[in-house]
Amino acid sequence: MSKGRPDFSEVLMDLGRLIEALGDYRQVAVLTGGLVPFFFRRLPEFAAPAIPPLFTSDMDWTLPRELKVRGEQPLADRLADSHFVVIRTPASDPPVQWFQHERHGRDRLAPIYAEFLVPLVGSASSRAGRARTVRVVQRGLTAQALRYLDLLLDSPIKTDASLVRELGLVHRREILLPQPANYVLQKILAWPERAPEKRDKDLAYVYEVALLTRDRLDDVARSVAALRRRHPAPWFARARKLMEKLFASDTSDGPIAVARQYRGLMTKGGAPSERAVWTVVHGFTEAWWTDAGRGR
User: Fold this and answer.
1) Spatial distance between the Cα atoms of 260 and 199, rounded to a whole number of angstroms
2) pLDDT per residue of the chain (296 residues) written in tens, 0 to 9
3) 109: buried, middle or exposed (CB in 10 Å: 19+, 13-18, 0-12)?
C-alpha cells in the first residue's frame, strides 16, 4: 500500500490499469474530477500552459444512471478480474464503494482509488426521508448520485488514452472526457456544496481549463449555447451568479484561492498572480454569456 501522498506516476499507472479494466464500459463512462485538465493538456487543440498540472489521486468516473451490462460482464466483475478490490463504507444503505488496486490492500482506503458517480435526478431524499445519494447502477456496483453531473455526460470528447505514455497502455484505448465548458459549469455549480478543503483546488481547475482553452473561446461559447437548450435555465443563472461573485475582481475569493494553490505548488516562483487569474477566467466566462446569448 502507498504510504502518505503517492507519486503522480503511480496514480497514472493505476489509472492505466483501470482504463484497461473498464473494457466496453469505456464507451459510456466519462472521466471526471481533477484528472480531466491533465488529459486536456495532451489534446493538440488546446494551449500548452507553463504552469504544472495540479496533483490528484482520485480516479472519478461518471456513469449513466441505468448502466446496462456491456461485453457480457458486469463492471464490478471486470474490475475484480483486473485485481481491483472494493472498499465499502457502512455509513449509507446501499454503501458507497471505492475501488483500489489489490497491492494497496483490502482493509482500508488507499491514497489512490477510483469512484463511480451518477447524476442525481429529483430530490436528494425520498418522501420517507431516506437518502437517495447512493444508487445501485448494476449488480455489485453502487455509485454516488450528485447534482449537475448530467453536464459531464452531454456530448463528451473521445480521446485515445494510449497516447499518454505514463498510463502504460500498449493498445489504443478510447476514453471519454467532458467538454471543457461542461466541466467548468459542473465544478462551479457544485462548488458551494463541496468540502471546504476542496474548494480552492476546484477553482484552480476552473482557471486551468480557462487557460487551456483561451484560444478556442468561440468553440466554448457554442458549447454553452447548446447546453442552454438541453439543461435547466436556473443552472446557468446560478453558475453566472457564482462566477460573478467568486471572480468579480482580482481581489475576489476566486483569484486569491487560485493564486494560493499555485504558490503552494510552485515554491520557486512562476505562480500566476491574482490579476492574471482574473483576466483569464473573466475572458472565459464572459464569452459564455455574450456569445451563447446571441446563439453563436
Assistant:
1) 12
2) 445 678 999 999 999 999 999 999 999 999 999 999 999 999 998 988 888 889 899 999 999 999 999 988 999 999 999 999 999 987 777 899 999 999 999 999 999 999 999 999 876 655 555 667 899 999 999 999 999 999 999 999 999 999 999 999 999 999 999 999 999 999 999 999 999 999 999 999 999 999 999 999 999 999 999 999 999 999 999 999 999 999 999 999 999 999 999 998 887 778 999 999 999 999 998 888 765 444 44
3) middle
The Cα angle at residue 206 between residues 35 and 233, in degrees rounded to 5: 110
Nine-digit cell string for 66: 441505468
**CA angle in degrees (0–180, nearest 5) for 101-42-28:** 55
Cell numbers placing 216: 478556442
CA atoms within 13 A on the CB side of 124: 7
Only one residue has cell 502504460, namely 168
For residue 102, how far is the Cα from the chain centroid?
24
Q: How far apart are CA 279 and CA 53, in angstroms?
A: 19
Burial (CB < 10 A; 0-12, 13-18, 19+), residue 219, is middle
Amino acid type, 221: A
Amino acid at 252: S
Residue 248 class from Cβ within 10 Å (0-12 exposed, 13-18 middle, 19+ buried)?
middle
- In sequence order, what are the residues at sequence separation of 6 or more whose Cβ sits closer than 8 angstroms to the Cβ of residue 124? 131, 132, 133, 145, 147
Q: Judging by DSSP bridges, how do beta strands 134-138 and 113-119 pair with one another? A: unpaired
Check: CB of residue 96 under 8 Å from CB of residue 185. Answer: no
